[in-house]
Design brief:
Largest sheet: 5 strands, antiparallel
Distance between the termini: 45 Å
Helix content: 10-25%
Strand order of the largest sheet: 3-4-5-7-6
Radius of gyration: 16 Å
Number of helices: 3
Length: 137
């Protein structure tokens, strides 16, 4: 069992928040549906208005757990990504990698020049961190 938003992630997939969305038992803004996956808006609103999550209709804990399902979800995410001039595909495996819901999901994050959204390995991240700390180097 793993932590999900301060709670324990259940071993029973019926108790998984994304499984509940797939089953129609929990609310979600669905933006695209396929036979094997759903694309939904993050409940938090995401990092921009076009940010979506692509998740499989079957319970898979993370991208390393089931390569076939992961490939199908990535294919669906790529379809959405193709609609944007620039975007990031992001997924995580495990709490140290920032996974917070233990049901495979891929973030499709459309990007634009000057959008101010830093990733931890980009120069924008270092600049933003300096600015937040009051360093004007």
């Amino acid at each position: 069992m793993r932590s999900v938003d301060g709670r324990r992630c259940p071993a029973d997939p019926k108790d998984c928040p994304f499984c509940a969305i797939v089953a129609g038992e929990a609310p979600a803004t669905v933006v695209r549906e396929w036979s094997d996956a759903l694309a939904i808006r993050p409940r938090s609103g995401g990092v921009n208005e076009e940010h979506v999550l692509v998740l499989p209709r079957v319970h898979v804990e993370d991208a390393g757990n089931d390569p076939e399902t992961t490939a199908a979800v990535m294919r669906r995410a790529a379809e959405l990504m193709a609609e944007h001039a620039a975007a990031n595909l992001i997924t995580s495996k495990g709490e140290p990698a920032t996974q917070s819901v233990f049901h495979l999901h891929v973030h499709v994050v459309p990007r634009a020049d000057g959008d101010g959204l830093p990733l931890p390995w980009t120069p924008q991240h270092a600049t933003r961190a300096r600015n937040l700390n009051g360093d004007q180097q």
